[in-house]
């Protein structure tokens, strides 16, 4: 039997139970007290039976009855309090584990998130941790408790008669060996079942997120087909794992009946040869019945361990996944607008398929750059590298002369603001959506930015002003309004470099123009990079970079390139309506 599950278990347990050591110790003390009481109560009843036979009705019987009541009352009290403590410890430990997992997953690179669906991650962060709650609260304490109870009963039986102790000890050994042997295959089945469950939830999450597209494209039957396929796999793997765990239970019930019979037969034998009183026979029967509880519980806890081992394996797997993006040492570029330099940067999402090839350019601080090029040319990839969602395989990116890999990631993301055409809005108030839950941004700042990007009329029509709740995923807002809110959100963080990736693509021409004017104010004192297919969006930028098949084919001041009839940019300007891809 491998001890790896136990070492894993103890390292997780030590990490998350340490802060609750006081409660865990109190819980253990209460459980220990209840072991003593559980052994003591039948002894009092045994004495009661013998005293009745020997003395008839007497004062001693009343004391024994009262003692029995007190012992029962204390046992129940200890159980209630320890159950409360178990729940409390379990919830606190699992919540802390959940929070750590979530923080870890959020810090992983984009490549990881592209490989895992949201539903799958939810299931791993919440589902797996939920399944560990018993494991955290009860496993060690209950295992110890029941093993001690088992030992206590065997000692008590041995004190009555050594033959009793030996026979019942051998019986317990038989039960444990039989159940452990039967349980061998269960772990792998639970691993498969948990995988099937996260696959199911991953698919469900994805389908729900894309419900509009699914309906409009008429692909409901495809979704149902895959829903049933995954659901069926989840159902069958879970029921197989459950059944494989149920067979030891069925066998254990048979063995427990055998144990009771053994106790009764041995008690009767000792009574027949005059070595036991009726009270002792009663005690032997109660103790051999009481043996079932720890044997049963040890078996259940071990079965839960099987389930938990698969969760722990998956949780550990997640914790041991490291982001390919390493945090910098915290070098700070000079304050204010950032210059951007790409030095011979090459990058590909997959090996051997370069997307950017030897890209070099320098954008001085405070200037704005428009990047144009055909679809799939690598424009968005440039912004992802800037933001360190990926790191280039070759070359260096500098922000005000400092390699951007040297900045702390949180500093980088504070100083660089990114707006894409996919706006993520939360089911929260307008204020929280704009400030990202930061409380130090004043109403005045928010209203100024809203006015600058032309959202004042929209704001004044809101029922509760900044406290108006937005629907999930921006429901109730037009795509253009959502995009304008994303603008406001980024500008409120006061970045030194702003990157707009097709950020105004969903705005009607009039709103787009309003935003253009507001943007001039907002770009003031900052460096800007604008990616746009619509060339009219680039009317105010200082420089232009033309990208084709991942290579820079032109870079220079916009006005110069526009007036040079041989430049790629001026040729692009002559395409119909400024559209750059035919
Ligand atoms: N996450 C990814 N994994 C693998 N390949 C990717 C990924 N993202 C983009 N690509 C590929 O990289 C190439 C460049 O994509 P990128 O999004 O940078 O182009 P783009 O110029 O911004 O295109 P568009 O104008 O359509 O937005 C494309 O061939 C695309 O298929």
Descriptors for this entry?
single chain; alpha/beta; Rossmann fold; four-stranded antiparallel β-sheet; 21 helices; 10 strands; binds adenosine-5'-triphosphate
Note down, in words, how this protein is organized.
This protein is an alpha/beta fold and about 575 residues long. The protein folds into 2 domains: about 5-320, ABC transporter type 1, transmembrane domain (ABC transporter transmembrane region fold); about 340-580, 3-Layer(aba) Sandwich (Rossmann fold), CATH 3.40.50.300. The chain has 21 helices and 10 strands. Strands 6-7-8-3-9-10 form a 6-stranded mixed sheet, with helices on both faces. A 4-stranded antiparallel sheet has the order 2-1-4-5, with helices on one face. Helix 5 (about 120-130) runs antiparallel to helix 12. It is elongated, with a radius of gyration of 35 Å. It starts with a helix and ends in a 9-residue tail after the last helix. Mean pLDDT is about 85; it is low at about 575-580. Bound molecules: adenosine-5'-triphosphate. Adenosine-5'-triphosphate (ATP) binds next to helix 13.
Indicate the mean pLDDT: 83
Stretches with pLDDT under 50, minimum 5 residues: 576-582
Radius of gyration over alpha carbons? Answer: 35 Å
Bound molecules: adenosine-5'-triphosphate
Strand neighbour order, sheet with most strands: 6-7-8-3-9-10
Tell me the name of the CATH class of the largest domain: Mainly Alpha
In total, how many beta strands?
A: 10
- CATH architecture verdict of the largest domain: Up-down Bundle
Report the CATH topology name of the largest domain: ABC transporter transmembrane region fold
Protein name: Helicase
Domain ABC transporter: 340-574
Membrane topology: Multi-pass membrane protein
Transmembrane segments: 21-40, 60-86, 139-158, 164-182, 262-287
């Amino acid at each position: 039997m491998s001890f790896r599950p136990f070492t894993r278990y103890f390292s997780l347990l030590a990490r998350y139970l340490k802060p609750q050591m006081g409660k865990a110790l109190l819980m253990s003390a209460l459980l220990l007290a209840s072991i003593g009481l559980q052994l003591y109560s039948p002894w009092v009843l045994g004495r009661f039976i013998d005293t009745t036979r020997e003395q008839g009705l007497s004062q001693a019987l009343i004391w024994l009855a009262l003692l029995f009541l007190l012992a029962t009352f204390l046992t129940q009290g200890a159980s209630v309090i320890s159950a409360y403590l178990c729940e409390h410890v379990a919830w606190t430990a699992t919540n802390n584990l959940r929070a750590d997992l979530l923080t870890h997953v959020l810090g992983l690179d984009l490549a990881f998130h592209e490989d895992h669906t949201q539903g799958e991650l939810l299931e791993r962060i919440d589902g797996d941790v939920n399944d560990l709650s018993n494991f955290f609260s009860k496993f060690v304490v209950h295992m110890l408790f029941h093993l001690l109870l088992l030992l206590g009963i065997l000692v008590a039986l041995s004190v009555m008669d050594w033959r009793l102790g030996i026979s019942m000890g051998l019986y317990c050994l038989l039960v444990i060996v039989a159940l452990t042997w039967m349980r061998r295959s269960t772990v792998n089945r639970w691993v498969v079942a948990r995988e099937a469950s996260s696959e199911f939830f991953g698919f469900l999450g994805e389908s729900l997120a894309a419900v509009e597209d699914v309906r409009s494209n008429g692909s409901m039957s495809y979704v149902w087909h895959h829903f049933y396929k995954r659901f069926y796999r989840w159902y069958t793997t879970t029921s197989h794992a459950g059944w494989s765990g149920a067979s030891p239970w069925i066998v254990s019930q048979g063995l427990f009946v055998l144990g009771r019979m053994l106790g009764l037969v041995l008690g009767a034998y000792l009574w027949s040869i005059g070595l036991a009183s009726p009270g002792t026979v009663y005690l032997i029967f109660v103790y051999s019945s009481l043996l079932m509880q720890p044997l049963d519980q040890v078996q259940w806890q071990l079965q839960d361990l099987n389930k938990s081992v698969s969760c722990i394996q998956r949780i550990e797997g997640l914790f041991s996944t490291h982001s390919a993006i390493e945090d910098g040492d915290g070098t700070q570029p000079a304050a204010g607008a950032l210059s951007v330099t790409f030095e011979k940067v090459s990058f590909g999402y997959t090996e051997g398929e370069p997307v950017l090839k030897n890209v070099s350019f320098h954008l001085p601080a405070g200037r704005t750059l428009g990047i144009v090029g055909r679809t799939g040319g690598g424009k968005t990839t440039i912004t992802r590298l800037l933001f360190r969602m990926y790191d280039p395989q070759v070359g260096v990116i500098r922000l005000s002369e400092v390699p951007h890999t040297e900045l702390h990631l949180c500093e980088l993301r504070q100083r660089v603001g990114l707006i894409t055409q996919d706006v993520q809005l939360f089911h929260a108030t307008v204020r929280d959506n704009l400030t990202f839950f930061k409380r130090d941004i004043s109403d005045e700042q928010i209203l100024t930015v809203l006015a600058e990007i032309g959202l004042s009329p929209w704001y004044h029509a809101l029922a509760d002003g900044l406290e108006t709740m937005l629907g999930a995923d921006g429901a109730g807002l037009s795509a253009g309004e959502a995009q304008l809110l994303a603008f406001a959100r980024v500008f409120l963080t006061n970045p030194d470099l702003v990157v707009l990736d097709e950020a105004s693509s969903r705005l009607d021409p009039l709103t787009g123009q309003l935003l253009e004017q507001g943007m001039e104010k907002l770009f003031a004192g900052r460096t800007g990079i604008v990616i746009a297919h619509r060339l009219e969006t680039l009317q105010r930028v200082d420089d232009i970079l033309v990208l084709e098949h991942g290579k820079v084919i032109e870079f220079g001041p916009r006005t110069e390139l526009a007036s040079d009839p041989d430049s790629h940019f001026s040729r692009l300007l002559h395409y119909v309506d400024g559209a750059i891809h035919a």
